[in-house]
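Folding problem:
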Amino acid sequence: MLPICGSNVAYFPKVSEKTHTDWFPLGEATICTDAGDYKVVSIAAQMLADDVERVTSARSTIVSATSLKKLPHGATVVAGTVGHSRIIDELVRQKAIDVSAVKGKWESYIVTTVNRPGQGQLLVIAGSDRRGTAFGLMTLSETIGVSPW
């Protein structure tokens, strides 16, 4: 895992182009946001999809969902802002993720994985605010070798 420095609390899981034991298959993952979240989140998700394609030649599908039940099966990157993404808030309510380290902070995010037996793994990026969510997505691009700047 790669630690992210600064005020962000994030350890990115090992990511790979394809399915590999103990690695998140980013090259095969769907990217999911909530249409009710800030516009910058969907822009950053699109940028991540572009970067994944640059690295793997595979285009990530981007979808919008409002609940865990509506997420696609398979590996999924879920990105959202605490209090503005229904999926992130649902994961918090279910105690699947803990956002206490970033809640109420500026431009911070967490990155974690959530296993969904029989449905696929989630790589969750939860931002404290809209910039935090965008920074989390752009930092994921950076970890795969693409500078978002």
User: Anything to note?
Assistant: The first helix runs from residue 39 to 56. DSSP finds three helices and nine strands in the chain.
